[in-house]
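Batch manifest, entry 17 of 40.
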Amino acid sequence: MIDRRLFLGSAAGAVGLIAAGCAKSAGADSQSPATKPVGAPPPFSARNFTIAERDRRWSAVRERLRANGLAALIVPTSTHFTLNYAQYLSDAGFMLQGGVVLVADGDAYIFGAPPFPGKNPAWIANMLPPFGSFGSAASQVLGAAGISSAKVGIVGAHASKFGLNEFTAAGFFPASSFKDLIDGAPEVELVDFTPDLAEVMLVKSSEEIAAMEQAAQFCEGVHRSILAKARAGVTPFELNAHVGSLYANSMASPGVQILESAPVPFGEGTVVNTEYGVKLAGGHTQGTLSFAFSPVSDETNSLAQVAERAFEASKSAAMPGTRFGDAVKAAEAIIDEAGYWNGFPVIHSMSPIALVGRVGMAPGMYQPVRGEEIILQSGMVLSFEANARKGQKAMVKVGGTGVVTDTGVRMLNTLGNTMQVISAT
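Output type: structure tokens
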């Protein structure tokens, strides 16, 4: 089974179908982020959200810091794109292995993020000199703030905490930088704050959901373009290059890009499973699209029916007040009862990817559910990826990104909710 998180580099304004779809759905003019010309700033320019959104986030985090008796919070940049804790507190892009220090009753400081221009003012004015390690810089901030023997929250420094995922299970605070922090602030008691920050981030504001909607609509455009391009005789390499060109001519960048198919030209009975992430205007969504060329085999139809039933079950179960683990089990039970298995998690959260259903490495060999006991709330954004797999090759995967609301999940992506069928003639 291929790595489900292969990803491309970054890119820069949408063309054709994607641009039209984004502009129409967002009600934007020709200068919306999805339709600006090639040559726009790279993704690490950031500055996507308002100062009001910054204040909302910082207030929620500081409230938890005070409740836990913590004088400050130290958050390094993650080594994997699925977690964006430092970006959450800064709305900035990082060129270096840096991070953010947020003082509970003081200011915020940033290390490793250049002051690139953006449509909104910088959230953090205190830029630490980019010399040495983030850990050393953070210890100096604590000293200057008079925090020499207090409790301080830290993110990403301990293994197997909620808020990490299968790619960051061992943590992501670099060992040498962490040592510099300890050496520079030996009397400070470091307390893991990863679960707290993850829980704050999981529930989105209206501003964040609007950004998610824009990213999801870009993904719908990618799906429409894929279905228009996919014809008998086209190879997976040509289709993947086509998708790459859509990102390369846009303001979006992919967090994940997967196309699963035999490395031969498409033809009768070919099944293609794709998953594309979209980072755009501060939103991060993922869209799944599965399509098959007619005539479709009985095996593929069976896999599709199971995957689609599993998707509907998990979507129906993902109501406020429900344990995340119960929403996951609603889909997994259907897959298991059919005699299939799932490689991809049937559901995971977005920004951060901290709630994660079981990940299958082989039939019967699963990593455990992450965040099983977390109670779903209105405003959480989930990626639904119901997948039914037989053996190591046959699979159908359906779903998309949706927002949990008081009345149920509102899907932001719809084309991938069922398997699409394309004529092979």
